[in-house]
Write a structure and sequence with these properties.
By secondary structure, this protein is α/β, with parallel strands linked by helices. The strands form four sheets. Strands 9-8-7-10-11-12-15 form a seven-stranded mixed beta sheet, sandwiched between helices. It has a five-stranded parallel beta sheet with strand order 2-4-3-5-6, sandwiched between helices. α11 links the parallel β3 (about 190-195) and β4 (about 235-240). The radius of gyration is 27 Å and the shape is globular.
Amino acid sequence: MYIVPTMFRVLLHREKMDSTLESMKDGEATVGGGVEDVYGEDRATEDQLVTPWTVSVASGYTLLRDPRHNKGLAFTERERDSHYLRGLLPPAVSTQELQERKLMQSIRNYEVPLHKYVAMMELEERNERLFYKLLIDNVEELLPVVYTPTVGEACQKYGSIFKRPQGLYISMKEKGKILEVLKNWPERSIQVIVVTDGERILGLGDLGCQGMGIPVGKLALYTALGGVRPSACLPITIDVGTNNQKLLDDEFYIGLKQKRTTGKEYYELLEEFMSAVKQNYGEKVLVQFEDFANHNAFELLAKYRNTHLVFNDDIQGTASVVLAGLVASLKLLGGSLADHTFLFLGAGEAGTGIAELIALEISTKTNIPVEETRKKIWLVDSKGLIVSSRKESLQHFKQPWAHEHEPLTTLLDAVKAIKPSVLIGTSGVGQTFTKDVIEALAAVNERPLIMALSNPTSQAECTAEQAYTWTKGKAIFSSGSPFDPYEYDGKLFIPGQANNAYIFPGLGFGLVISGAIRVHDEMLLAASEALANQVTQEHYDKGMIYPPLTNIRKISANIAAKVAEKAYDLGLATRLPRPTDLLKYAESCMYTPNYRSYR
């Protein structure tokens, strides 16, 4: 298939150009040599306004600088003639595969992960298809580079490594003008928006405007892992200031240098944003809330889930991927979810979101009211076990988990009293699953399931090595960030990674291909079960409760098909008629990054 790259050989302001050509014929010289300075560029001062888009030069030079169409040395001889590229490239003609091998060799030469991240981002800015080809073909190696854990460090240093804007920045300065700002984005057919206000980036806290690394990284995965077209993705950072004094004092900080706007003014800005998004892009654009602080995350999800197509990855995505791991682990643990007791360290967005989805899944399978199934799930926060005597002082999202029990102040006391079979960490605090805690868990379980989910790696509640060693090889272990395989007593254990990247790309893609107008909890359950079904006996034999990420495109297609099926069943899909084979339809809709041939 041949396509014509857009935006090339356009000639604007013909009279000006004709004038330039006349100057060239007459040979009118300037002080610096060359022809007459028709546009005043040499004479312009800082006080003199210059229109930057006055001239559009008919040249392949522009094509080489358009990341969507650039192929570098992979332009064929015929394409070099057709698109005025002769002399602008070295004579060698490459293939995409050869370019990929060369770049992977270059990236592997970097020892510092942040340098690899910068190299990948620079590649995305100059050759979009090659960037996604690399990411898809080397997903296990590059996912930790463009996503957690490296993206956390990138956000911390975003001001220093910032070179070229990616996505839209909407600050308090744009209040009352957000619709105009959205119209500044060149693409009109947006299907997925990932938006953050930077207040709770991973386990790193308030990074303000520098949180943009998260929406950019998430949307790269929507394309590479889920198949959503890059042009249909829009990363957005809402900058309302930061309470991080270190950033406020940093001369290179790229955001608003003010304390965070809160309360009525904050929610008015978000209301204007959500209204403008729907007005500009329609009912079916998916808005994914990312890394908002607890108090805003729950409020925004509750406010907009019945009026917009919204999804909170920290609450719902994390819950769905953890539930998938729990369902898959039943093959190793035995019994059903209802037979197990769950103890969480951490009662924020992730913890309560996971707990609620587990309770909902048990309720769905047993027909027991969710109010009852919640009693199998216990949460520990910074003040100890959440119990009914604390209910009056608890935030509203913690109150459903306040069960009857004597107050306990430490995690170790809670493990000894509750005797859970599953221990889940969402605290954002590293090394909180101590040796005493793990040994107490192993004392009451033949196969304890330990999920240390906090990101990045430095914030994990324990390491894979600690989990396997302290349980004498009995543990089934999973984490939020990757850990290397570990050998204990002659047996090789492969830690699972409860990575949201398993769920949100496929979930979002399923919503897009079905034209869904709302996200329903049943879609999250469908996504979890679809992921759990991808775990084979071969994986179980290695202690794995998640499939390898190398199969992620196939996994995402299966998840998308199940989510789309649920959207149609619930009457929430608008893309009609319904495809007869949703899996084949999902696979056929997925973006592929192979180079196109140009006329």
